[in-house]
Specification:
The structure holds two protein chains of two kinds. Chain A is built from eight helices and no strands. By secondary structure, chain A is mainly α. Chain A has one domain. In chain A, helix 3 runs antiparallel to helix 5, helix 6 runs antiparallel to helix 7 and helix 7 runs antiparallel to helix 8. The longest helix of chain A is centred in the middle third of the chain and has 30 residues. Chain B is an alpha/beta fold. Chain B has one domain: Rossmann fold. Chain B contains seven helices and ten strands. In chain B, a hairpin with a 2-residue loop joins strand 9 and strand 10. The chains are: A mainly alpha, B alpha/beta. At the A-B interface, helix 1 and helix 4 of A face helix 2 of B. Bound molecules: adenosine-5'-triphosphate and magnesium ion. Adenosine-5'-triphosphate binds next to strand 2 and helix 1 of chain B. Chain B: GO terms for molecular function: ATP binding; ATP hydrolysis activity; transmembrane transporter activity. Chain B: This is Heme ABC exporter ATP-binding protein CcmA. Chain B: Keywords: ATP-binding, Cytochrome c-type biogenesis, Nucleotide-binding, Transport. Chain B: InterPro entries: AAA+_ATPase, ABC_transporter-like_ATP-bd, ABC_Transporter_VariousFunc, ABC_transptr_haem_export_CcmA, P-loop_NTPase.
């Protein structure tokens, strides 16, 4: 287990170093999320109080759609020089490839969130009064679930033609329960309603995360297995 | 000892390898030659654990290669048609990454040594995106040697290399062989086959049609004639 973790970190570090050098994916993700925020801030009048109601939804729209850009790249980038085969013949457990990719994608998406959510609040003139800890916990839990399923499906889709189109088609339906929970819980925290409701959504999301993490973790080696 | 016992590989409804058997002892060097599409690379993929045979078994030191035995893969160094390298990273970063996955000790030292051996140490800090084909092939060779395998599977390692690199590579292979490492070499370049290997298999349409030791005295022309006769089916 310790070795799986160490290998996963090696792979994640390699991916992040790659990204740090090219800044291809992260650049696209940040530009995309900024554009979404900008367009929405023009489309809706931020001074109108009812507009605040769309903020929770917007947070997740940004996360999912900019995240998709990163997820698409994470396995496609391994096809250059067929380096995924290099990982397959290496003496590592296939699960560590999955774990490494999850960590790298999570870091990328979290960075985009850390930049875009404050900008979102700023442009929509929203003063954050809610409980920051709960807010972060909710965002993190839902993001982990999204990345776990997304990474698994990205690996699945990478073998197919038109994988860029296949990934959202597979991913979005699977994510809907998680996203309903995420939007509801975020709304509760941002509007400072009873935190107990948010906690039950959080529990639901955590259960969803665990379930899918276990399933993806164990199924991943079948994805990596050759014919 | 690497043993393949009566391997048959069928993809779709196409038989790619039929009843293929081979035993490779430490320090042995065997060339696998044959026309395009004969199944040579498929044989390597099976031996490296990238594919599972349809029937038959592959044993490495008496243990079967399966997904659970991924630690056995450390024994095998596989150089494929592709380089498996990351083009945004520098040669040293690439070696460092694979070194870590293979749990190589003294990665920095060995990495530098190998880069010198393949003549890339002046380029060690340049992303390999800008490298020429031969330079990438040199680095791919350094990558396989870094992990210190007991069995080297080299699939057309001489492609794209210049004269100097070819003799460097032959030297590196010989060195490894003297240390008791077993070599399997796929090549269309018979000159190198005769230089490096002691035994040769001819694969044609998924079947072994010839298996004999190379007579180094006889030179290139008789070897070519023998190959042509074997492949054309006399
Ligand atoms: N994944 C696959 N699916 C279907 N057929 C395949 C697959 N891989 C290989 N083949 C077929 O198997 C045969 C042998 O392929 P292989 O790559 O082993 O040839 P080779 O001997 O290495 O040829 P070359 O000298 O050109 O490298 C070919 O006819 C090829 O079409
Ligand atoms: Mg081949």
């Amino acid at each position: 287990m310790k070795i799986i973790l160490a290998d996963a970190l090696t792979i994640a570090a390699k991916d992040l170093r790659n990204e740090l050098k090219s800044k291809q994916t992260s650049g696209m993700m940040i530009i995309f999320s900024s554009l979404v925020i900008l367009i929405f801030s023009f489309a809706f009048d931020p001074t109108n109080n009812t507009v605040k109601a769309i903020i929770p939804g917007l947070i997740w729209v940004i996360t999912i759609f900019s995240g998709l850009l990163g997820l698409n790249r994470s396995f496609i980038s391994e096809q250059e020089n067929d380096s995924l085969t290099g990982l397959k013949v290496a003496p590592i457990d296939p699960s560590s490839i999955f774990l490494g990719k999850v960590v790298a994608n999570l870091v990328l998406v979290t960075i985009v969130q850390m930049l875009s959510i404050p900008i979102l609040f700023l442009l929509f003139d929203y003063k954050f009064h809610g409980d920051l800890i709960w807010f972060l916990l909710i965002v993190l839990t839902a993001t982990i679930g999204f990345i776990v399923i997304g990474t698994f499906l990205a690996a699945l889709a990478a073998n197919a033609k038109n994988s860029e189109m296949l990934l959202p088609v597979l991913l979005l339906p699977l994510l809907s329960p998680l996203m309903i929970g995420a939007v509801q819980a975020t709304k509760i925290v941002l509007e400072q309603e009873g935190i107990t409701d948010a906690i039950s959504w959080l529990q639901l999301m955590a259960a969803y995360d665990l379930l899918f993490f276990a399933a993806c973790f164990f199924l991943f080696e079948y994805l990596m297995e050759g014919s | 000892m690497l043993e393949l016992k009566e391997i048959t590989k069928i993809i779709g409804d196409k038989i790619i390898l039929r009843n293929f058997s081979l035993a490779l002892a430490p320090g042995e060097s065997v060339a696998v030659i044959g026309p395009n599409g004969a199944g040579k690379s498929t044989f390597f993929k099976l031996a490296a654990g990238l594919m599972q045979p349809t029937s038959g078994e592959i044993l490495l030191n008496g243990e079967q290669i399966k997904k659970k035995t991924h630690l056995l893969k450390k024994r095998i160094g596989y150089l494929g048609h592709e380089s498996f390298l990351y083009s945004a990273l520098t040669p040293l970063e690439n070696l460092r990454f694979y070194g870590k996955l293979y749990k190589v000790k003294n990665i920095e030292e060995k990495g530098m040594e190998l880069l010198k051996a393949v003549g890339l140490h002046y380029f060690k800090d340049i992303p390999i995106r800008s490298f020429s084909r031969g330079m990438i092939q040199r680095l791919a060779i350094a990558r396989v040697l870094l992990t210190e395998p007991d069995f080297l599977l080299l699939d057309e390692p001489h492609t794209g290399l210049d004269q100097e690199a070819v003799s460097l590579l032959n030297l590196l292979i010989k060195e490894r062989q003297e240390k008791g490492i077993a070599i399997l070499l796929i090549s269309h370049d018979f000159e190198q086959v005769i230089q490096v290997c002691e035994r040769v298999l001819i694969l044609n349409k998924g079947r072994v049609v010839e298996d004999k030791s190379i007579d180094h005295q006889r030179g290139l022309m008789p070897f070519k004639n023998w190959y042509e006769a074997a492949v054309s089916g006399k």
